[in-house]
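Example complex used in Figure S2.
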Amino acid sequence: MIMIKARALGFLGLWTVWLLLTAPWNTQEAVAGALVALLISLLPFSAASPLGDLKLSPKALAWLVAYVFVFIKALVQSNLDVAFRVLHPKLPIDPGIVKVKTRLKTPLGRLLLANSITLTPGTITVEMRGDDLYIHWIKVADPDPEAATAAIVGNFEKYLEVICG
Amino acid sequence: MAGIIGAFVSLIGALFFLLAAIGLLRMPDALNRMQAGTKATTLGSILFLFGIGIMQPDYLGRVFILVVFIVLTNPVSSNALARAAHANRKRIGAVLSPDALADDEARIAAGDRGTAGTKEATHGA
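Predicted assembly (290 residues):
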């Protein structure tokens, strides 16, 4: 089941990229693209694609859309934060590496979480070991793992748990 | 009109690139420089590309693909760079307090056979 889902999503993803690249569309190009995308999505390695971790229930899709907006808000905030620190005459930084825990189990969920952390205010994912993520924090507010987890991971994990467990 | 709006959006994107450049110059070590470099260049590229998309609506589809790829790959490359910088933290003079990763590495090097995540690994004594 998860293999069929990975292949179907792989096909849809490839074909969408093709359609966006070839706009404005004509039928011949669209059909040729669909055939090639189908062939690629049937290759043996595509079953191992992390796309299979994505849940497709209506609730998960709604949360995926909400997550995009949460992510954009965090991205803009982090840029304003960078602007503030870079332009501040005293350069207000106090960097350190803290350890946080994640409840996410799937590779896709962890990839998205690590990427989101890197693009949010003052944090960069440095290393992942087991359930632990090591985060470079430009101004360490709280070195305690539990408090750091709540501050850095909590907001995204809530959404990613619904989207891809 | 669309040309003016597009140019303005691209200009804001360029401003974020400028901030990233100032950050690279002002920050004290590689890990902190990455903080400025990763975030500001990501939003900078997104705004810059969408500015072009607004000026030339034919390109919007292609611009969208570029934005998705940048958002997916930029953090991954910065993650790899951050890991390399941390492995060389003494040579680049990085000041980190606390440094949970170095602590756990030291504990593993000291012969603690448990996984890095477990705090109370059992010593066989």
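DSSP finds four helices and no strands in chain B. Residues 2-109 of chain B form one domain.
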